[in-house]
Amino acid sequence: MKTPLPDYLEHVLDECDGDDSGHLADYIPELANASPHRLALAMSTVDGEIYSVGDDDVEFTIQSMSKPFTYAYVLQQLGIDEVLEKVGVEPSGEAFNEISLGKDGRPKNPMINSGAITTHSLIPIKDNISSAEILRQFMSELAGRELCFDDSVYHSEIKTAYRNLSIGYMLRTVGILETDPVDIVNGYIRQCSILVTVKDLVRMGSVLANGGVDAQTGKRLLNRSVVRQVLSVMMSCGMYDAAGDWLTTVGIPAKSGVAGGILGVLPGQVSIAAFSPKLDEHGNSVRGIDMMERLSRDMGLHLMEGTPSAQTIVQSHYRTGQNASLSVYVLRGVLKFTEAEMLLRIFQREPVDQSTIIIDLTQISLIHDVGKRMFLEGVDRLIDDGHSLLLVDPEQRLDHARTHKDRVLHVYQDLDDLLEQKKGHHN
Ligand code: GLN
């Protein structure tokens, strides 16, 4: 069997192909030379599978889609508090290149140019490597290949960068920038000129979707708290003055760029990227938005739709053994807050006696920290009530459980073997 996903993506591409509306970004002269017909779409699952269609090998400049990665880099290096001193996290409701500051004197967020120029200025320089080169290396690591700068787009933007320079001078005047604003704006524009394909973008995005870990190498590249901060700001500010519209219709944290790219990241699920150079009045790709809207609708990706929690954390519960003295719980699915709460409520029904409780965790696919803590608390309370607790946890995902509150829990490999052993023991 061949998975239908590429066919589906191809179908979305075809549906959007006919729309010729929008205009090329011409304030960067080189971008006005782009072929307006280019169209590409890609998707990466959290475990690193990449599907892509259309002009998926065509490189274009990352532009503002570099902003969340610069933000991630400085957050990782300096910590969230230090970065917050310089750049806020409030949606601006203004155009991406607005020459404005928040009332508190900081740029409103790192997704508009004033905030992004500021985060660029925070990159710690070492070994005489330029800030843009540091970012190129960082983004290359995320993309899993060596990315390059587009010199002609860079020079083209530099020649007409009056607006970004005004922003730079404004930021220097109020002390948000602490060094030469021309150097910083140059570095920022160079950062925007990094070349990517939609395949690179989804690979970079999947590190964010995967909580900071590169699924293909297993390496942790960003802390979880950094990823949460970046995705939150992408959600509220990534689409500039169209952020509210985007949140209600697409509902996926995203960032657009004036070369026509859009990157969307749905935590724990997928990253998707679209490319089509013609833009709407907010500077977002017209066909890119259309494709993202369709994907979100068709695949139920809207963040606010939420996934109904599995009502089936307990796959089965039965009593067995002599005098039904063994109470067996077979669990399955994901153990997060909602499921753990449900489980504790079920454990509450266990009569207070000396019986043995067996809990089989083999089919639990993911245990969240809070799920683990709540589960162990429940186990402790069952022991306090006088029960003996036996866990089947072949992958030892609760292995510190054995010494939890100095309790010795017995952990087994296989439910059937355990039951055999217990029943034999009773007979
Ligand atoms: N380099 C562009 C600029 O600073 C990036 C803007 C964008 O992609 N929205 O104007």
TrEMBL record:
Report domain STAS positions. Answer: 316-398
The record lists substrate as bound by 64, 113, 157, 164, 188, 240, 258
- Alphabetized UniProt keyword annotations: Acetylation, Hydrolase
Top-level EC class as recorded in UniProt: hydrolase
The catalytic activity, as recorded, is: L-glutamine + H2O = L-glutamate + NH4(+)
Task: List, alphabetically, the InterPro entries matched.
Answer: Beta-lactam/transpept-like, Glutaminase, STAS_dom, STAS_dom_sf
Q: Per the UniProt record, which EC number(s) apply here? A: 3.5.1.2
Xref: Pfam families: Glutaminase (PF04960)
For this UniProt entry, which segments traverse the membrane? none
- BP term (GO), one: glutamate biosynthetic process
Q: Name one GO molecular function term.
A: glutaminase activity
Read off the PROSITE patterns from this record.
STAS (PS50801)
Please name the PANTHER family in this protein's record: GLUTAMINASE
The similarity annotation says: Belongs to the glutaminase family.
| Assembly and binders | Homotetramer.
The protein in question is named: Glutaminase
Q: Which organism is it from?
A: Acinetobacter ursingii ANC 3649
Phylogenetic classification of the source organism: Bacteria, Pseudomonadati, Pseudomonadota, Gammaproteobacteria, Moraxellales
